[in-house]
Amino acid sequence: MNGRPDAPPLAATAKVKNAMRLVAVDGHGHEAGLRVGQTLSDARALFPDLDVFDDDPDADAAMLEAIAAWCDRYTPLVAVERLAETIAGSAPGLFLDISGCAHLFGGEEAMRGDLVARLRAAGILAHAAIADTPGAAWAFARYSDRAAVAPGRHQEELLDLPLAGLRLETQMLDMLRKLGLRTVGCIAALPRAPLAARFGNGLLLRLDQALGREEEAISPRLPVPELSSERIFAEPIALVEDIERTALQLAGNLKPRLDARQLGARTLELKLFRVDGHVTSISVRAASPVYQPERIMMLFRERIAGFHEDMDAGFGFDLIRLNVTESETRPVEQADLGGGQARGEAFINLVDKLGARLGTDRVLRFAAADTHIPERSFGLVAQAGAGNAVETLLWSDNQPALDGQGSAAVLTRPVLLFDRPEPVEAVAEVPDGPPIRFRWRRTLYRVVRSEGPERIACEWWRDGRGGQSRDYFRIEDDEGHRFWIFRLGLFERETHNPAWFMHGLFA
Amino acid sequence: MQGTHVRHRMEALQDAVARVDRRHASFARHARLREKDGFVRFGIDALDAVFKDGFPVFALHEVRCTLSRDIGAASGFLAGLLAGCMKNRAGRIVWICDPACRLDGGQLFPAGLAMFGLDPARLLMVRPADLKSALWASDEAAKCTELAGVVFQVKGNPARFDMTATRRLMLKAQQNGLFVSILRQGGEEEANAAATRWCVDARASAADPHLEKGIGLLRLSLVLERNRNGQTGQWTVAWNQHEHGFEHVPEDHVDRPAAALHRPDGAPQMGQVMAFERAS
């Protein structure tokens, strides 16, 4: 394909083996005799007006990833192939496992034609081949004009291909070539033991994989959704309302299948395939298993409303797919006799709505942890997080501290806690006593009353040998502000100049 | 002593009846039925005197502190108030935090909340990324009838959180039977639709009889700056950890009109803060 008939050839260059060399050449340049690996000065001698730009492997990888995302429209099993640099013909590619998908596109040949034509329309020249094994498809796509190989025939067809089609290292390939072994057929007939002894197991493995004697699994880039429903549009759609309506329809399509398995979706994903190949993926997480189409649509509506300024519809979407990526067994519910909402449903709806719009990591609940270090003793976890089972948290009113003194009538824990204790400059009468003055956030406080210390030892199993104990004091200044302040390190035993920290505010 | 006991028992029974009523009311919604239990008493005569029918639970309230460092006192008062109002009510409490508060105010400590009788497991913490979505979240939360309360924590006086926004919250609180509260950190007095507005300030605590320099019952100074259904006033209260409630601390040396207390400079201004168009 030559998209620039009047322009000079185009090549990408990079520094290889201490010289600027061509790493990619367009079709025009290839016809004219430019080759990958040529130095730039040689190429310039051939074509003084050669168009050159720097090679950008990251951009190449991103492009390949984007094409892989686009290929999801054909099959959920798309793998990006990343071979080592030393492999001959290691131009990266994609594997698509189209088992059971081809009939949706009118057969294998029609599917391949559709894929190549669409990529070509987007300005991408693709070589695609369909075969029984990934290895054979790899070889046919690169070293043969055969687009599709009839099922079961790939073994005979492979024999005529050059050995480079077996994904071998350049070094090994050179060696084989020197021995006069040029095609797959040459080595397929040879006895295996001497071959393995001479070239290692890699050669036989690749041969077996290509011929189908050895199983080879591709690793898909995304987990396969549990359920999926899609809709193709002859005329692309771009309006948010249309997208929502489609989501409702797709959710309606999924419902019978969810009902049949008594499942509800926890994580859903809406994939919007833009006409120009860009794929937008919106994923939402529900607080409890959902199966009602209206609730599923509501989740997406909030999500789309949250970021619809950023969503670029371009010329519209021609394929919309709804995936259930995570599902759970539905809890059995007894409906209200009065026909009202089930108990707790309004709250779950609220959590879903907030989570969909703000992100599930912003709708949180407290979870207790088994430790005495205050900032570690609790955490905030997503309300809609994994593990739907209701955890009963025990927050004891009576903290163990100071129980012996019979002063449970006192609040021993502050209402507000700082995530990171803030350093204060404090002056204490005795090194291990409470402070009498301290400066926090540039204000000086004079301590009138104080209680403590309450010693919280470090967790040596987590902090290591150097961890220091904390002595907590509850102190009150002359204006009545009450603080929770601690001294890090025991005087003389752990440190000689202990530091003071502000950790919380009492009421 | 006997009298209060009987009264508590009566209140508990009334609440039980009200709960049954409420369950029936869900079949055919009668807002009137729920109003019966929509009021609580503080158990402090001086405070209860300004609320004729009792403190209205199902309304929008505001708790504020003038200085940033008083947020501890304000949060503590709100926690006590919430615990008191939620004693006989099931349902979760949504606590929405404007991102600006998180920077210097620290975060809620569940162990400390539990000491005020507020079960941290009932809290749903919502932390939106900006004020706009925080307002949206508080609006959505106030719509939910299964909640017990909504707290919207905000720093200062953002222009977006104006009369209209507060009026909407107030209406939803009344309609859906929710305790909705604004917790304003370091903000100015501002006209809004709240039924009550409290300015909380920390006070030096009482001496502890058991310890020489010990901290006794913690005290808070409450200024009721606005009360839609009655008088305003100023009291000092102490938190009684045994009974999980506030008790009154009579202060004989303070005898000034309540309105002027939070304006130490100048003569007390006449009249009321009115809702005009915002300047900012």
- Which strand order does the major sheet of chain A show? 12-13-14-15-16-17
Number of strands of chain A: 17
Most extensive interface, chain pair and sizes: A-B, 65 and 69 residues
In total, the number of domains of chain B comes to: 2
Largest sheet of chain A: 6 strands, antiparallel, barrel
Molecular shape of chain A: extended
Name of the level-1 CATH class of the largest domain in chain B: Alpha Beta
Please, what is the CATH homologous superfamily of the largest domain in chain B?
P-loop containing nucleotide triphosphate hydrolases
For the residues shown, what is the average pLDDT of chain B? 80
Structural class of chain A: alpha+beta
Write down the Rg of chain B. 19 Å
Summing up helix and strand content along with how strands pair, one would put the structural category of chain B as alpha/beta
Query: What oligomerization state is this entry in?
Result: heterodimer
Model regions low in confidence, pLDDT < 50 over at least 5 residues of chain B: 26-36, 253-264
Key attributes of the depicted protein:
heterodimer; A: 507 residues; alpha+beta; Dna Ligase, domain 1; 4 domains; six-stranded antiparallel β-barrel; four-stranded antiparallel β-sheet; 14 helices; B: 280 residues; alpha/beta; Rossmann fold; 2 domains; nine-stranded mixed β-sheet; two-stranded antiparallel ribbon; 8 helices; 12 strands; ImuA (chain B); P-loop_NTPase (chain B)
In a few lines, what is going on in this structure?
Chain B: It comes from Hoeflea poritis. Chain A is built from 14 helices and 17 strands.
